[in-house]
């Protein structure tokens, strides 16, 4: 993958800045995207239109030299870090070292993401470097538009996702029902934790790691971020939301299905049908030039027409539609563009989720989520998994 | 677990600050430790000696109200975020909202960790809030001393670790040797990826998630952070380094063993024996009042006595002992105290690794790692796993 950094060059030029800097570990996807390298402990990197440099500890030097998309790979010892540390203490020594590294790369002023550590920012400012937080988050914005290779990475993660979802569906639909809960063949209750574990084992077998997995049934499903625990209920919706990360590519996918084993109440059935209608309305709206806000509005319109509250009409709503319609997916499981209030214009190569849901505290919830890529004339659905409640 | 925040109160008092603030997601263990709550998207929290407050989106409000160790749980809609967003744009709206929330908690000045996002720091400063990075990292320092409950969490993660290590050892020692590589029963080469997968499945079955797992053999083992890939070599050391996180408690453990299937060279054997001697010397040095630096020096002394280079005597060394002796382990797999150059005084309740190793580019490496807790009169080794190369 060879990212197109011309927008980054323009940003630096427009703002009169020499480079774009990072100081973070491999949880920072902007850094990974720009430097082509990650490490478990924080390291420093700077992009300039002429060259990219990374500054790492001895421990990471060999790997950085091999892996980083960088013209300059330096290590702490190149800047006499230990001597500086004796003289100035560990923090000030670090800022002095980084300032010297920036000087060697001809950088007197850098843009940084909002998330850049304030300790390093203030430390570099004391060394005379201009550090200018970038409110536009230009690197995230560049990352939002995926290359063909990146889309293929998401596809691969989504195939693993479908295998894991099939395993979850098999466990839930195949369970017996006893005293209102689902029961495994061996007579033990089927729990959220058991289904999560089986999902995650399936993901591992498909080369994926996991952040977390949601298997939430009954009243637990009313909280959209609740992971779920304990025996799963019969006759009630169980939300299964899986968002694996491929270990090699580091790209994610994201999909949700809602399953009932048994006979759901009319209220649950209606919430599912209306959610499905909102889901289809959102997909119909996806095309280049439409904004994420408009796609979200298509969902809100359906829910409102059926009398369900939403946080977009009543920000303090605790039932109904209480989250956004979707989000970008890539190196992060939540990234730009936003498919919500304020969401940007969609462009070909944007990979987004469409995931409306309805929730009722004390009762439960339903959600349906596919992942799609915006194309020149609409979208391609990257998801291949049936949508069915019972 | 009820952390002791008296040191935090002292820090704020000494520095004349009203509170200690966080703006991050659940990857920030300091935030999780103080607020008792994590979320996948960034949220704001502030600790004051009188009360702790968290400010979350509607989506997280229910869970935060239940889970957070907070006296005040507010949500964006309490501060008219949507109206502010229309008026000021998303970033400025966020800073205004947080400034109002701080005002409601009586905070005009806050300490923040070095890693606090500079965008938020600068935004709050524009709103008249003093934001003062804390070079002492007082929350990490408080976290370094574990309660009995926390030590029990590490023990539990370590039991999972031992089960996973046993699975890895069984696969490696039980493999056949063919043309210089290890071979599974089905005739396929035994790869790093296969052993990693089996380790991670075992961890999942024991309630643990994983960050990553190192199974690196032959020349790959010369790079201490290389994960390893491809067929594993016969007759050469394979480093297996496992650092699981218990999903419920979120606490980690960390252990490394090095295995050879076959007949290692004399150079490999010697590196292993000397590493073992350094390992024992380090353990002998662990007791309250000794510094992490002194424990590290015990390792350096053994390696120097046997003629191996170290980065502590030659900072640019690429062979020999090229990383630190150890690190604290808890909510983060790498945390304070440091067992390295500059490492702090050890205190009862510190949980640290002891993990010397020797590496030779082009040939390979060996490492031995246990995890121990410092006690009133020495240490207790939390690791129960045999140490044996062949």
UniProtKB/TrEMBL annotation, chains A, B:
Coiled-coil annotated residue ranges, if any: none
Pfam families for the chain: Creatinase_N, Peptidase_M24
Domain of life, per lineage: Archaea
Transmembrane segments: none
Domain Creatinase N-terminal residues, every copy: 6-128
GO terms assigned for molecular function: aminopeptidase activity; metal ion binding
Domain Peptidase M24 positions: 152-376
Keywords of the record: Aminopeptidase, Hydrolase, Metal-binding, Protease
PANTHER family: AMINOPEPTIDASE, XAA-PRO AMINOPEPTIDASE P-RELATED
Family that this chain belongs to: Belongs to the peptidase M24B family.
Protein name from the UniProt record: Xaa-Pro aminopeptidase
Organism field: Halobacterium jilantaiense
Organism placement in taxonomy: Archaea, Methanobacteriati, Methanobacteriota, Stenosarchaea group, Halobacteria
């Amino acid at each position: 993958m060879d990212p197109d950094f011309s927008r980054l060059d323009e940003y630096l030029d427009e703002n009169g800045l020499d480079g774009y800097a990072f100081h973070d570990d491999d949880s920072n996807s902007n850094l990974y995207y720009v430097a082509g390298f990650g490490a478990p402990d924080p390291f420093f990197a700077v992009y300039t239109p002429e060259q990219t440099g990374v500054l790492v500890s001895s421990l990471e030097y060999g790997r950085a030299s091999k892996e980083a998309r960088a013209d300059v790979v330096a290590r702490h010892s190149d800047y006499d870090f230990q001597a500086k540390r004796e003289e100035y203490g560990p923090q000030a020594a670090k800022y002095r070292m980084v300032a010297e590294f920036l000087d060697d790369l001809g950088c007197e002023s850098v843009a940084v993401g909002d998330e850049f550590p304030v300790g390093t920012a203030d430390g570099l400012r004391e060394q005379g470097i201009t550090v200018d937080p970038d409110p536009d988050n230009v690197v995230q914005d560049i990352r939002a538009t995926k290359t063909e290779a990146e889309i293929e990475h998401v596809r691969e993660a989504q195939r693993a996702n479908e295998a894991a979802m099939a395993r979850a569906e098999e466990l839930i639909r195949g369970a017996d029902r006893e005293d209102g809960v689902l029961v495994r063949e061996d007579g033990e209750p089927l729990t959220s934790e058991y289904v999560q574990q089986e999902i995650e084992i399936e993901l591992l077998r498909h080369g994926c790691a996991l952040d977390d997995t949601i298997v939430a049934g009954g009243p637990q499903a009313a909280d959209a971020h609740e992971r779920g625990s304990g025996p799963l209920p019969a006759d009630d919706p169980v939300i299964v939301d899986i968002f694996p990360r491929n270990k090699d590519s580091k790209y994610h996918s994201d999909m949700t299905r809602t399953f009932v084993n048994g006979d759901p109440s009319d209220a649950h059935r209606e919430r599912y049908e209306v959610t499905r209608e909102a889901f289809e309305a959102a997909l119909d709206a996806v095309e280049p030039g439409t904004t994420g806000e408009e796609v979200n509005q298509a969902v809100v319109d359906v829910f409102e027409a059926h009398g369900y509250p939403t946080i977009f009409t009543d920000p303090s709503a605790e039932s109904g539609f209480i989250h956004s319609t979707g989000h970008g997916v890539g190196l992060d499981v939540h990234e730009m563009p936003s498919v919500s209030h304020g969401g940007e214009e969609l462009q070909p190569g944007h990979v987004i989720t469409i995931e409306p849901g309805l929730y009722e505290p004390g009762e439960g919830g339903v959600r349906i989520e596919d992942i799609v890529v915006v194309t020149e004339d609409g979208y391609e659905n990257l998801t291949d998994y049936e949508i069915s409640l019972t």
